[in-house]
Amino acid sequence: MRHSSGRHHAGAEVKTFQRGDWRVIRDLLPYLWEYKFRVAIALSCLVLAKVTNLGIPILMKRLIDALNIKSNSPEILLVVPVGLLLAYGALRISASLFTELRESLFARVTQNAVRKVALQVFEHLHSLALSFHLARQTGGVSRDIERGTRGIQSLIAYSLYSILPTLIEFCLVLGYFAYSYDIWFAAITLVALVLYIAFTVIVTEWRTHFRRTMNDMDSKANQKAIDSLLNFETVKYFGNESFEAGRYDENLARYQVAAVKSQKSLAVLNLGQQIIIAVGLVLILWLATLGVIDGSMTLGDFVLVNTLMIQLYIPLNFLGVMYREIKQSLTDMDRMFALLNTEKEIADTPHAKPLHIRNYSHGPDVRFENVSFHYEAKREILHDVSFNIPAGTITAVVGQSGAGKSTLARLLFRFYDIQSGKILIDGQNILDVQQASLRKAIGIVPQDTVLFNDTIGYNIAYGNPKASIAEVYEAARAAQIDSFIKHLPDGYETQVGERGLKLSGGEKQRVAIARTLLKKPAMLIFDEATSALDSKTERAFQEELLSLAKNRTTLIIAHRLSTIIHADQILVMEHGQIVERGTHHELLAANGRYADMWHMQERAALD
Questions:
Q1: Mean of pLDDT over the chain
Q2: What is the SS3 assignment for 571?
């Protein structure tokens, strides 16, 4: 037993069965009950397997008793009763057959539950607000999903394949003892089992804090490792490899201390379990021995009692492991279901309709009406902002960092809901339309471009996964990146690396521009989209931008004023408010904040 009970899983946690545990089981049942007919057959196979398993030692008893005859007896011809032997073989095959049928039938049920729950959690995470993802660490969330799906498999495996069969077998053995032998056989077996279970649960609960510490340290170490690897370049820039290793090792060391204490407490559990089993087995065999001596029991009965007790106690040896693993599974599943039950901060209203754009080829009319917004109540980002982007025109927003420019794009995508005011697209309040249709109509090239760890072709095609190869190439040409890609050894099959780190900033930005153009949205947003481009490429892209904007409503968030001189409207923002608006020439003539910024950038260019 030691080698089996000694196994532990990183992150195991044991708690008493609480209301939350039953809630987790209740949440899981609908996924299992979808195959109720298959479940019913599997449970029937389980009962039949245990009945035939009980019949094997009973049939062996009869064979042993049948062998207890003299060599010159006329019954010698029946010494090896063919019928009993065949029945014994049939029982053994049947027990194995019913067991395998049970597992085969339930495999589809288990895997279906795992697949559906994991998919729902994944989809739900994508539906949550940006604030949720900014607050949670990716490593911790992925770990919760991984453990949760593994927990479903473990819970079903331990409960259906271990706990439930043991309970059924125990009831059958108790019933057989009470019916066929002295009541003391059943009483000793029952008392030994109760003591065994009570001791196992009490000691396992005592070990809870060791398991909890191991769970916490494992999660923290995993989060720090993923966070460090995702920021590989930053670690290298500052030469902090040793610092990161030290932070990681600190949690590993705490995990090690808790694991050692857990292993020592396991020794106490193992020893106590063996003592209870040994005492119960000795008492049962003592009663059986007395029965053989006084003639109330045969030698076959003695072997039967011994076989049934060993057959019953072998799975009980693993009760501590099973109990702990079931508790761990429930805890892990609870965390995963907690993710699934996380309330959506940004949700479609019950009567939300798809966004309707009057003239998709011309772009929508966009209007901000007295919009105020804050991420935190004490820090207002936008205050009473109002402006209009007529359909098919270009509006540029400029201002110092922190003025609220990029927030406009996030609000248009409805990553956050505003506190007051309205945002209208072709007269429709974005709070009343389906988010999917809203985001489908808008394309954005962000300042900080993050690419998938795949090929350049895949990242461009991500703008429209159904696009043809020719359309992907056309988008790349429009973004001024086609010639660069063709000169690469692997062309469009070139791997970009984690977050696109194998490409330069300008190359990543051009890939982002290409995939946005491939999306063919009705409205375009460029959030510092040319900040990483060289001057020559930027000028070429500006010309392309003007031709693209003729058929789309366009919002440009810019730092370099030279990129937006052709905009139909320029908004100057400061401290979350629009302080100036007009065309490039109008704003220069006004000699206000925009003119100051323009002259400052001109001087910087000359220097």
A1: 80
A2: strand
